[in-house]
Every structure is written in C-alpha cells, then in structure tokens.
Amino acid sequence: DTDEISYVKVGIPKGKIFIINPKGEVAVNRRVDTKSYTSLHALVHGMFPPTTCSEQEDFNSWNFWKLPPPVFDI
C-alpha cells in the first residue's frame, strides 16, 4: 500500500504501477494477477514505449537551447 501511495504522490498513473508481492504475484491497480516474465515483458513494452526516438537535428533540444559561441574582438 505505501509503495503505491508513494508512486501516486510523484505523479505516476495508477495503471502504470506494478507491485510484486513476496509470492511473485503482480498487482496492477490493486488487482493481483500472476503473470509469466515473458508476458510481463510484452506488457511493459506496450505501456512504456522505448524512449529512443528519431528527431530532426535542426529542432532537437541541444540545438534549440545551446548558447551561441562568444564573440571576441581581436
């Protein structure tokens, strides 16, 4: 219970909180559902898509926020 409360407090949606009890049962949204690691692996990829994504180089955060080089008078 305290784990779920903590995760909700920091903004994690209840449907994405997986609690594994000492018996190895997985509870999502307080519903206990025993799954194999293979099915959990597939579920995780569906709920948490990969963070790597392609972005245009002209508009990525580095190019948008980087500071221009300083100008020196010589």
What is the fold's blueprint, element by element?
Layout: H1 2-9, E1 18-20, E2 26-28, E3 31-33, H2 37-47, H3 61-65
Main sheet properties: 3 strands, antiparallel
Distance between the termini: 66 Å
State the share of residues found in helices, binned by percent.
25-40%
Q: Which ranges are low-confidence, i.e. pLDDT below 50, for 5 or more consecutive residues?
A: none
C-alpha Rg, in Å? 21 Å
Order of helices and strands: HEEEHH
Instruction: Give, in spatial order, the strands making up the sheet with the most strands.
Output: 1-2-3
Question: How many strands?
Answer: 3
Give the count of helical stretches. Answer: 3
The 3D shape can be described as: elongated
Structural class: alpha+beta
Strand content: 5-15%
How much is the average pLDDT? 77
Commentary on this structure:
With 74 residues, the chain is an alpha+beta fold. The chain has a domain at 2-49. The chain is built from three helices and three strands. The chain has helices at 2-9, 37-47, 61-65; strands spanning 18-20, 26-28, 31-33. Strands 1-2-3 form a three-stranded antiparallel β-sheet, with no helix packed on it. Strand 2 and strand 3 form a beta hairpin. The chain is elongated. The mean pLDDT is 77.
Key structural traits:
74 residues; alpha+beta; three-stranded antiparallel β-sheet; elongated
Concise structural overview:
This is Lipin/Ned1/Smp2 (LNS2) domain-containing protein. Helices cover 32% and strands 12% of the residues.
